[in-house]
Amino acid sequence: MSAIATRSVQSMGCATAPSDAKPGQREVFCGLTGIIWLHRKIQDAFFLVVGSRTCAHLIQSAAGVMIFAEPRFGTAIIGERDLAGLADANEELDKVVTKLLARRPDIRTLFLVGSCPSEVIKLDLAKAAQRLAQRFAPAVRVLNYSGSGIETTFTEGEDACLASLVPEMATPPQGAEKSLLVLGALADVVEDQFRRLFAELGIAKVDFLPPRRSADLPQVGPNTRFLLAQPFQTISARALEERGAVRLRAPLPFGVEGTTAWLGAAAVEWGVDPERFREVVAAPRKRAESALQRYRERLSGKRIFFFPDSQLEIPLARFLHRELGAELVEVGTPYLNRKLMAEELELLPPGTPVVEQQDVERQLDRARAADPDLVVCGLGLANPLEAEGIATKWAIELVFSPIHGYEQAGDLAELFARPLERRARLEV
User: Fold this and answer.
1) pLDDT in tens, 306-347
2) Domain assignment of residue 271, yes or no
3) Total structural domains within the chain
4) Residue pLDDT, tens place only, 345-400
5) Which of these, 101, 144, 323, 424, could form a disulfide with 129 (CB 3.0-4.6 Å)?
6) Which domain holds residue 308?
């Protein structure tokens, strides 16, 4: 950290501590869930899931789309004839895509999204995307990625989607100015806030991946510096680095500390004067600190247990402990990328139990024995734990809600305080 970052790392925290990974039954959603926020973010794209009726029901129910709405996602149903080999699945897929693009001429990028059923029958969607891309180019770009739920967690769907976009990004010309790329889907209001802050710092060339329109893909090359906006961008971050882009090391922009260090990493790279940096972040930082103050008393000393769900667990645990005074009983995550999470792990208190890929039954036993004040977990565990008298927070709500940056710091704290307040009212 440079002098710009107002709180430097004081210790190695949990950076070198081993993670306790145990095989066994796990509770995970599939990567198809990412379509729910991606189809809203990329406004000229369509996500066509090649899967079963179960896939269609999952997406429809998760999105809450009204029956008369026309969303930018759908499902090409793999039926019994496809499974029995009585129909050519590729021919059937071509028919579905042709009808779709004829009816929706506004589509500029079509994602063929693999599922568990399409992978089980060995349907090669990569070749299908190449074939359809040649047919419908240049009007429509056709790409593919896997949203399968086999041994993945649901946020990996976004990572796979963004990784499929990287090969489509042009290389900047020789001698092009240095540019900043923010990797990870953000709510439009949060993206606008960050763009204004970067502009005030004098960082003019800033792009976001995914872009709001797929036609606006940024260029990427050795002159590109990128910041992670989400912690689960393993594949897409590697793809950018293979193109020569350089990741700026920083915690995630959650809360005052994370946001300041995140912006500070870019400021250092662009040579922003430290005094100028402090001037730019002073007002939003003060608002964020004020917003957090009202929740600090409610969350200070509360014992919190994280089940693995979205990969947001480690940066959120850091935020809760360092800025709100919560105690971390256990921090579970479905996958731990030590390279991407190094700065976050350094900020966790030494001795914090960080675990990945846990047997859910054993973890439930530990949670019950610890009797925490709040458990952050998936929907499948929340209701049973609530029935046992344990307050829970739905982890998936943290993915769907705008929680990044200074202006959302209070909203993020409230998401954790709300179930505790509800439990307190119920006990009166």
Assistant:
1) 999 999 999 999 999 999 999 999 999 998 999 999 999 999
2) no
3) 2
4) 999 999 999 998 778 899 999 999 999 999 999 888 999 999 999 999 999 899 98
5) 144
6) 291-427
